[in-house]
Structure formats: structure tokens, C-alpha cells
Design brief:
Elements lengths: L1 H55 L4 H16 L5 H24 L1 H5 L1 H36 L3 H7 L13 H4 L7
Keywords: Membrane, Transmembrane, Transmembrane helix
Organism: Gellertiella hungarica
Subcellular location: Membrane
Length: 182
């Protein structure tokens, strides 16, 4: 009789731990999709931003080409490769910063309504992206803690739950404020 009670308690705990791992995995997946949505919004905005800037700064072709190349690199990263996507998006952010900095050198561009709207949209997307990154990293942290902590690590290993990579900047140069020199 006591053996059945102990088995029942262990089974209930195992089910609760398993469900907790599933919930954490789903939260991490949902958080990643939030980042993906923001990255897509930013990626869709870039061609419009580039076209607007081209009209004012045609001789800045190398800067504009770099943004497009970085955008294409970021979009080419395989889905689910968080580390590579983080690195590619960091390089894109750096290149975008240089485009926005061009506005300082071209007062007419800065005063252009289209550019101002695009810049505001980009700033909003960047803020939303920052929030999505924090949410994802929190969800990844929670899942990683459960995957590594006892006793849930026993179930995690058994059912194939794996740690998630954090979405972070790995290259210190990506953290630097972009410099534009003429």
C-alpha cells in the first residue's frame, strides 16, 4: 500500500516536472517568434529607408550597399540558429546606425518627411526588438535552468529537452557606437 502511494507521488512529481519543461520550451519558442517578427519588420523597412537616403546621398553607395548586404546575410541565417542570427543582426544594426548617422551630414535628408517617418519606425522597431530579445533571453534562461537543475534535468535528458542559446552580441565591435567619417 505504501509502495503504491510513493509510486503515485513520484509519478505526479514527474508529470509536473515534465509539464513545466514543456511550458518553458513553449515560452522560449514563442519568445523567439517574437524576435523573428521584429526582425522581419526591420528587414522590410530597410529597402524603403535605403531608397529615401539614396535620393539625398547617392555617393554614399558603399554604406547603403553594406546595409543591404548585411540584411541579406541576416535573412540567410538558418531558422533556429540563435547565435548566428544574433551575430548577423548585430552587424546589420551597426550598418543601420551609419545610415541614420548620414542624416546629420545631409540636413535636407534629415528634414525629409519620408526619412523622418522611416527613422521613427526604425526606432520603434528597435525598441520592440530590444524588448523581444529580453523576453526571449528570460524564457531561454528559465528553460536552461530547468534543463540543468535536479530533478528536472533527469526528465529533460530523458525526453530530449535542450538548452537554448541566448540572443546576444558576441562581437565586442558590434557594441560600439557607429562612426561616420567624411
Amino acid at each position: 500500500m505504501y509502495l503504491l502511494i510513493v509510486i503515485a507521488i513520484v509519478a505526479v512529481i514527474a508529470v509536473m516536472l515534465y509539464n513545466s519543461l514543456v511550458k518553458s520550451r513553449q515560452m522560449a519558442e514563442e519568445a523567439w517568434s517574437g524576435i523573428d517578427v521584429q526582425l522581419k519588420r526591420r528587414s522590410d523597412l530597410i529597402p524603403n529607408l535605403i531608397e529615401t537616403v539614396k535620393g539625398y546621398a547617392a555617393h554614399e553607395k558603399s554604406t547603403l550597399d553594406e546595409v543591404i548586404a548585411r540584411r541579406n546575410q541576416a535573412q540567410a541565417v538558418p531558422p533556429g540558429d540563435v547565435a548566428a542570427r544574433g551575430q548577423a543582426e548585430g552587424l546589420l544594426s551597426q550598418a543601420l546606425g551609419r545610415v541614420i548617422a548620414l542624416a546629420e551630414a545631409y540636413p535636407d535628408l534629415k528634414a525629409n518627411d519620408n526619412f523622418a517617418q522611416l527613422q521613427t519606425s526604425l526606432e520603434t522597431i528597435e525598441a520592440d526588438l530590444q524588448m523581444a530579445r529580453r523576453y526571449y533571453n528570460g524564457a531561454a534562461r528559465d528553460l536552461n535552468t530547468k534543463v540543468e537543475s535536479f530533478p528536472s534535468n533527469l526528465l529533460a535528458r530523458q525526453f530530449g529537452f535542450e538548452k537554448r542559446a541566448y540572443f546576444e552580441i558576441t562581437n565586442e565591435a558590434d557594441r560600439a557606437v557607429p562612426q561616420v567619417k567624411f
